[in-house]
């Protein structure tokens, strides 16, 4: 056998192994063809900017699972989404660094102090018209690393075609399936920081509506922060509160009822599944108390109990994202499209408004 023949066969073997591994770890989409690259591979990736507000001690390494003792810190992450991206997928490398043409990747990350965050946020809102002045706050859930949360925020914003400003609030999840109690403590410690963020967003000149998309334990955290705002006399965030979307919320039903008593008539949607095994574990740890995200929407009595609180229910039971069934909201194109359609619907009171930046500051004026 000639030397170059051996190298070619070795290369083929490595490619075959990579294809096999991609099936094991759940990579989305086929490997690119060596003979004819997909047309999308030749197109540049799309850019998604995500503001990051973090109560983690650090955003990488061992300290990301520890809570910050200095309050929240801020950054502006520029993410790229490959042209061949499939809705609901998180294209990740089998090994090595992410490649922008093939994977969702971080292009740059700029750390900000609190004042820079507020100014940069206002700058991003400026010049936007109608619902594109809105802000989407994404709050991740239990067992979530910093990198996963940031990738998911970019993917959701892109797949839902959200035209406003995306902000991710991240807290010190232990990122372990058995770290439930620790995660609940970290989420509890982050309530004030999330409340402060909501206040800051609502006071951003020219901002439209502030929407909240929270997953799992992040749903409990978001509802607690909103409840604290309501107690402080800011139930609707100064008229800026938009949709509250709770995906598989890990919230006790009685606790949720008390939270809704403070927030009604807020626009709240619960994405629930009777097949959510993660919430089954949470229910067991809570001595079999029902979790809002694990109700059976097909059960008329359970559905009526939730809807009596003024909440809409979206049934995810027929969608699957694997054995656990806890993240279907983010991986199901139909759900992402539904979220995006709701956020993109023009509002009569906002359709002709534009936020402008001039020398005197930020103002909101009707568009001529």
What percentage of residues falls in helices of 4 or more residues? 25-40%
Structural class of the secondary elements?
A: alpha/beta
Large-scale geometry = globular
* Number of extended strands: 11
Mean pLDDT: 83
Could you list the spans in which at least 5 consecutive residues all have pLDDT below 50?
Answer: 1-37, 359-368
CATH homology-level superfamily of the largest domain: Alpha/Beta hydrolase fold, catalytic domain
Largest sheet: 9 strands, mixed
The CATH topology label of the largest domain is: Rossmann fold
Residue share in β-strands: 15-25%
> Regarding CATH, which class of the largest domain?
Alpha Beta
Radius of gyration (CA) equals 22 Å
Report the total helices. 11
Summary?
With 368 residues, the protein is of the alpha/beta class.
Describe this structure in words.
With 368 residues, this protein is an alpha/beta fold. The chain has 2 domains: 7-36; 43-346, Alpha/Beta hydrolase fold, catalytic domain (Rossmann fold, 3-Layer(aba) Sandwich), CATH 3.40.50.1820. The chain is 35% helix and 20% strand. The chain has helices at residues 3-25, 114-125, 146-159, 180-189, 191-202, 217-231, 253-263, 277-285, 300-307, 328-331, 333-344, and strands spanning 46-54, 73-81, 105-112, 135-139, 165-170, 210-215, 241-247, 267-272, 311-315, 353-358, 361-366. The protein has a 9-stranded mixed beta sheet, sandwiched between helices. Strand 7 (241-247), helix 7 (253-263) and strand 8 (267-272) form a beta-alpha-beta unit. Helix 4 runs parallel beside helix 6, helix 5 (191-202) packs across helix 6 (217-231) and helix 6 packs parallel to helix 7. It starts with a helix and ends with a strand. Residues 1-37 and 359-368 have low confidence and may be disordered.
């Amino acid at each position: 056998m000639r030397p170059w023949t051996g190298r070619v066969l070795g290369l083929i073997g490595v490619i075959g192994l990579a294809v096999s591994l991609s099936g094991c770890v759940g990579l989305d989409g086929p490997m690119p063809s060596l003979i004819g690259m997909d047309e999308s591979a030749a197109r540049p990736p799309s850019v998604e900017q995500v503001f990051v507000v973090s109560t983690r001690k650090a955003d990488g390494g061992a300290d990301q699972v520890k809570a910050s003792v200095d309050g929240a810190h801020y950054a502006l992450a520029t993410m790229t989404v490959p042209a061949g991206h499939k809705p609901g997928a998180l294209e990740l490398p089998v090994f090595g660094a992410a490649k922008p043409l093939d994977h969702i990747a971080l292009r740059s990350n700029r750390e900000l102090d609190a004042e820079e965050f507020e100014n940069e946020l206002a700058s991003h809102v400026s010049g936007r018209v109608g619902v594109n002045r809105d802000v989407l706050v994404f709050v991740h859930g239990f067992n979530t690393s910093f990198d996963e949360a940031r990738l998911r925020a970019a993917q959701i914003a892109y797949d839902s075609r959200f035209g406003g400003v995306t902000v991710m609030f991240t807290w010190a999840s232990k990122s372990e399936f058995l770290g439930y109690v620790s995660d609940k403590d970290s989420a509890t410690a982050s309530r004030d920081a999330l409340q402060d963020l909501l206040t800051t967003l609502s006071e951003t000149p020219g901002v439209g509506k502030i929407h909240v998309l929270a997953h799992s334990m992040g749903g409990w955290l978001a509802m607690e922060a909103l409840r604290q705002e309501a107690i402080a006399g800011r139930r609707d965030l100064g008229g800026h509160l938009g949709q509250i979307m709770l995906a598989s919320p890990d919230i006790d039903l009685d606790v949720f009822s008390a939270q809704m008593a403070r927030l009604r008539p807020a626009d709240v949607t619960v994405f629930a599944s009777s097949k959510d095994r993660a919430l089954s574990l949470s229910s067991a740890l809570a001595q079999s108390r029902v979790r809002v995200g694990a109700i059976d929407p097909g059960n008329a009595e359970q559905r009526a109990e939730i809807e009596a609180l003024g909440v809409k229910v979206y049934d995810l039971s027929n969608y699957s994202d694997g054995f656990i069934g806890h993240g279907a909201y983010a991986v199901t194109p139909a759900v992402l499209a539904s979220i995006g359609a709701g956020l993109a619907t023009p509002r009569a009171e906002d359709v002709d408004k534009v936020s402008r930046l001039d020398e005197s500051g930020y103002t909101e004026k009707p568009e001529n």
